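Box 3.1. Reading complex inputs
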Amino acid sequence: MTVARGFAVFAIAAILVGCGASSVTIEGTYPTPNVARLPLKVAVYYDPALRDFTYTEYSETGREEYNIQSGQSHVDLFNAILPGMFEEVVQIDSLDQAAGLGVDAIFEPLIEEFQLALPQKTRLDVYEVWIKYNLRLTEPDGEYIADWVETSYGKTTLESFRSSEASINAAAVIALRDLASSFTLKFANVPEVRDWLASL
Amino acid sequence: MTILSAMKKSAFNDFTLVLAGLLLASCTNTTVDEFRQGETGIESHESIVILGRRQASDYETRADFVDCVGDQVNSGSDRINVVPEQVFVDALFPWFEPRTAPLRTQDLERLMGEELVAEKIDEFGIRYIVWVDGFTETTGRSGSISCAIGPGGGGCFGFGSWEDDSEFDARIWDVDQLASVGTISTDATGQSYLPALVVPIPLLARVEANACSSLANQLKSFVNGS
């Protein structure tokens, strides 16, 4: 009787685990960009909304399918690219902290939207990740400099011996690199940023 | 010998014959075309880099295939130094990402105007950039295999087959001349079979592997100018 009860508990637990959402923590390495550094001291502020960003993908029946945590990977990405773009970069824990640091500007990235396309839903042999960002640049006193939208895209092909989680991670890392490349190359050409740089 | 064991032996012989036939049939046909636009040649201190094109919306050139071509070009008596794709792309970040990579030689000329890019390419000793573009498509899937398991054991029975078609182009850019010097195209097709009599026996046509070695061999002789 005890064995039967134990087996039943195990079977129910296995079913529940089988029904649970898969958790994917995006992990990747990001290179330092090969661009001429701007002679600026910039503070970067990672809002908790970015640091703890999680996206949940639901199945067609409304069940949680994947929980994708990409906040830390975004922090890693910006920590890798910003020192390659600016002469000095300091990380701040609150926007007020920048005032006494003698920085030229505060940079604050935020994720506005995250989309995931899975082969089982699109009927295509690719995993796709699309992310929309809001990037803000302000004076140390909070005065507006620029506020612009950047989108990034990453895809990876369906492969026989690779798990869905690994494929989602690969597509997300490509999307993050895509953001890094367009942000790095376009930064000085954002009209408000260009005007601000000219005024320095 | 009983009638039953004679029948088993006869069935086994038939199956062996079918397998042998399929092994011969699961061959790959490979065609390689070369289009030369300029003189080529490479010194021992120079290198090439082989990069996959990833701009298309419906497919992307797989990194495995690019690595395979690179490994084969980098081996043998007529080997050429190949800088690994990821090492090159990371070192030149963000200039060779899917959205920023040069699509034409005019774009490369503009890119070489960036001091940091020119320095890195010079550091690697890159003489040629090879852009590989293509994919392998599987078509004509047919047949079915059923598997069953019971207290006395399990097994599969049935037959499946499919055709693979690999089409890849390699465009070669001369970094010194900032010009395209040629294109090599390879097309490999092959039929694969999966007969199952208790155990499935995959008889796979090595289509992509053949496309890789054909492309690599042709690329080596093209770059060496032979």
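In summary: Chain A has a mean pLDDT of 89.
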